[in-house]
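Why do we care about 3D structure at all? Because function follows from shape, and shape follows, mostly, from sequence. That is the central idea of this module. The next example makes it concrete: a single protein chain, its amino acid sequence, and then its structure expressed as tokens.
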Amino acid sequence: MSSSNDIPVQAAGCVLWRRSPMDGELELCLVHRPKYDDWSHPKGKLKRDEDARTCAVREVAEETGYTARLGARLPTLRYPAQGRPKEVHYWAAEAVSGAFTSNDEVDRILWLPPTAARNRLTQPRDRTLVDALLAALHLT
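And the structure:
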């Protein structure tokens, strides 16, 4: 018999990108979460009766202040988190409008070129999403 600890926590997020206002080059948005002191892609847990796509867009807005236009589906990451399995569903997403305001969850964001973003990400598993985004945007 399985316990509720065996059921994966469902979450969703985006690899948020834009064209640099300075030179038109690709930039990715990373969020800094003071609770964990880490750099990651914007993501969060699904609310009751919420689908992953809706969650991904909501989390981007909450954590970055930007409106995201979802693009290609990216790999789902699976890993243990606080003693439970977790599944995070990701999409490529273009930032179409908005501006960042510091909040309880995220105190800073960075817009970085892909190589710098890959190097800044705290978790190695998140780095694979940078490569997946580049492939989805046909930039590899």
